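Record type: monomer structure entry
Structure origin: computed from sequence
Chain ID: A
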Amino acid sequence: MADLRTSILIGESAVEIDRLLEDIRARFSAWDLSHRALSTEDDRLNCRLANSEDIRADVIKQLRNIATRLAHVFCVVKIHEDVISNLSSDVITIITSNVETIKEAVDQLYGLCNKLACSHS
């Protein structure tokens, strides 16, 4: 029964995480386009910067939520706590750096989800 519960949790988490990651990819694209526009349109810098920073802050918040959710799933499937704590700190370090590493963090989270799904399917 515990295996069934774990499988259900992993399945639900994978769907939830996939939806959040798609949203982050869309927001990242919007932020990236806005950021590129800023570098070529100095006269609009102040107006657009607030919006792009809001998007970036939201992306970081969403990635932290996903890292927490992944840690919960890992805990349920009995992956060692050190792995969870390393994952959380690594992801938070990655996502608080710069625009390129937000994309990298999203890609890494996709990889973790896929690995988790494959190892428990």
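Annotation 1: Residues 43-50 have pLDDT under 50 and may be disordered.
Annotation 2: The two ends are 15 Å apart (CA to CA).
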